[in-house]
Amino acid sequence: MFVNIEGLSLGYRSNIILHNIHMSLGKGEVTSIVGPNGAGKTTLLKSMASILPPQKGVVKIDGVDVRSIRSTDLAKIQAYVPQQASSGFPLTVLETVMLGRKPYIRWGVKRQDLHIVETLLAELRLEHYAERYMDELSGGERQKVLIARALAQQPNMLLLDEPTSALDIRHQLEVLEIVRGLAKRSGILVVLILHDLELAARYSDVVYMLKDGTVFANGTPEEVFTAPNMEAVYGVRMEIEQAAHGMKMTAVEPLQVYQKEEFYVSRCTI
Ligand SMILES: Nc1ncnc2c1ncn2[C@@H]1O[C@H](COP(=O)(O)OP(=O)(O)OP(=O)(O)O)[C@@H](O)[C@H]1O
């Protein structure tokens, strides 16, 4: 499986958000989309999920325009987990994850569906929550259940919008290890939106850095996460070092701002 995005421009009503985006994503690769708030990351992911139609350009999966794929077929190819999802009515964890099997279920739940769901619950250490209702879970537990539901679709392509935002550090690593393991073992194409750039560096093969609805830089984490790129895109001076398990990024600027304020306050007091 491969995904090509060619000259994609789109927005909301007459307000164009993404401008002439080109991307190519390969099987078994983990790609992170990063960039400041409002850069257009979610809009881009929604367009890959065929939720938002392009105004120009095209998103192609294996050479086929995603807009021409029927939604039931698309659900077997790709799973999308939005930033916030609510079911609208009360479901247990088991029922929620079972919803991921919906594209495959014709007349009723089969033993194989139950096996897939139970295996995922165990893998994500959610088995003890199976009978709990979704509104009885913490934000982080709910986020893991939604990831389990996406994985139950057994997609070739997984689109996750800030999948670790509600998770503590141990669960962040756990989820990203599972997702990366799936990419490497099963050849799933994974696209993540991440705000934590150290996690993006650690778990991604490829990074696309967006600025104002355009691709400012793309390549390996080492190529993209450079001090000049960070300053140009985030407006923050950073020190970036290679560390044993990825990259270490330290913001330099906030410290200076603080020192300037302190200086200003002490001068006023005098
Ligand atoms: N439904 C909508 N209607 C109109 N404008 C929208 C809508 N959704 C998003 N936008 C605007 O599109 C721009 C890009 O939003 P988007 O959610 O794609 O950014 P993002 O990079 O994912 O941001 P964040 O990091 O804050 O989640 C923003 O200026 C936002 O206000």
Report on this structure.
This is ABC transporter ATP-binding protein. Residues 3-237 form the ABC transporter domain. The chain has 270 residues and is α/β, with parallel strands linked by helices. The protein has one domain: P-loop containing nucleotide triphosphate hydrolases (Rossmann fold, 3-Layer(aba) Sandwich). Helix content is 38%, strand content 27%. It has helices at 41-48, 71-77, 93-99, 111-123, 139-152, 169-186, 197-203, 221-224, 227-234, 253-269, and strands at residues 2-12, 15-26, 30-34, 56-61, 64-65, 78-81, 157-161, 189-193, 206-211, 214-219, 238-243, 246-251. The strands form three sheets. The chain has a six-stranded mixed sheet, sandwiched between helices. The longest helix has 18 residues, at 169-186. Bound molecules: adenosine-5'-triphosphate.
List the helices and strands and how they pair.
Layout (H helix, E strand, L loop, with lengths): L1 E11 L2 E12 L3 E5 L6 H8 L7 E6 L2 E2 L5 H7 E4 L11 H7 L11 H13 L15 H14 L4 E5 L7 H18 L2 E5 L3 H7 L2 E6 L2 E6 L1 H4 L2 H8 L3 E6 L2 E6 L1 H17 L1
Parallel strand pairs: 3-8, 3-9, 6-7, 7-8
Antiparallel strand pairs: 1-2, 1-4, 4-5, 9-10, 11-12
This protein binds adenosine-5'-triphosphate.
